[in-house]
Amino acid sequence: MAALEEIGEILQETFRWLHRHPELSYEEVETTKRLRQVLQAHDVAILDSGLPTGLVAEVGTDGPVIALRADIDALPVTEETGLPYASEIPGHMHACGHDFHTSALLGAALLLKRKEHELQGRVKLVFQPAEEAPGGAKKVLETGLLQDVCAIFGMHVSPRLPVGTLGLRAGAVTASVDRFQITFRGQGTHAAHPDAGIDPIPAAAAFIQAAQTIVSRNLNPFAAGLVSITHVEGGNTWNVIPSTVLVEGTTRSLGKEERQLIRENLCRLAERIAEGHGAQAEIDWYEGPPATDNAPEWIEVARQAAKEQSLEVVEAPASLAGEDFAYYQEQLPGAFVLVGTGHSFSNHHPKFQLDPAALQPAAAFLARLAEEALRRKS
Ligand code: NI
User: What does the DSSP 8-state code read for residue 311?
Assistant: First the structure.
């Protein structure tokens, strides 16, 4: 069993090691190996999940089961922080703080192991692969290991909150994420003979303009949603009218109805604008995770646990970023919380940084939250 001071050291050491060795989604082999070593060295049981990367461990005694989840993957970003423990893998970086989540959960596992016999049930510790893919959460759900779980909790670092704070919000704290690709198909021709073809460029341009009216004219002004067109491609020279234009982007929202409304309106505009130009719109829609959905009663438990750990609770800043933790919340109640890690460049930026001083309080908070959740369920 690890002494308290030892856990602090393991936390910091693991965090720096993970930061130096970032691995992309579904490639988290060394990360998984490292986690396995530390957990086994402290007699924490690792369940048979069949996951090629990532793992599920367990601490506790008979009784209700709750889960704590951390994501373990990094991003294809080249680090520019200049930190002494900066990434040693060119083009890979823990630019979203998943190294923090992983170390904090490991710390919580060791803290819970110290009081295993006092726990009023079991805690499953989910080290999830491929949050950024996204969809690692679905792989974990498919293992069936969460079938006996009655509540699940996860955290994300926030560069918008100072160290020592915890951001909580009932309902959605991250958005639903959809991706669309629309091909405007006309008929290519000589630039000097537009009458001999169907130019898809004016159709795509009209659609791009009109798409921005969905949020301003169709969505309830008190609701949150967005349409971002991020990729346009058509033609490859100056004197040929191309036959197609690709328009790609993403839509976000905090509610199911808004998600549906944005999708329907976007598809209708694309199809009818194309038709109006004598062209066609072929739409490919890719549904990402829904919005997170924090249960008010579990937010209250988190608030209590935070106070006991002397963390200041603030209202979590809402964001239209996505988070695949939401897949768990489609099936299980629970809460996704934000941990203040000090102001910095935003997540996914090459200069993103977090303050490791926030690690120990985060680990202690997770352990306390798990303990309290089990008490409420037994
Ligand atoms: Ni993230």
Answer: P
Please tell me the predicted confidence (pLDDT) of residue 191.
Answer: 98
Ligand 1 centre and the CA of 304: distance in Å?
25
CA of 96 to the centre of ligand 1 (A): 5
> Angle at which helices 4-20 and 359-377 pack, to 10 degrees?
110
Residue 23 CB neighbours (<10 A): 20
Instruction: Using the predicted structure, report yes or no on whether residue 153 has a pLDDT greater than 70.
Output: yes
CA of 157 to the centre of ligand 1 (A): 8
Select the more confidently predicted residue: 329 or 5: 329
Ligand 1 centroid, distance to 139 Cα (angstroms): 17
What token pair was written down for 375? 């008490």
Tell me the C-alpha to C-alpha distance, in Å, between residue 341 and each of 158, 279, 360: 6, 50, 12
Q: If you write DSSP's letter for every residue of 249-260 in order, what string do you get?
A: EEEEESSHHHHH
Is the pLDDT score of 134 beyond 90? no
Q: How many residues does the chain have?
A: 378
Distance CA 63, CA 356 (A): 34
Average pLDDT over residues 329-338: 97
C-beta of residue 176 within 8 angstroms of C-beta of residue 289: yes
Structure tokens at 339: 């941990």
- DSSP-assigned letter for residue 318: P
* 2 confidence band (pLDDT: 50, 70, 90): confident
| Contact of 164 with 311, CB cutoff 8 Å | yes
- 313 CB burial (10 A radius; 0-12, 13-18, 19+): middle
Question: One-letter amino acid identity for 88?
Answer: E
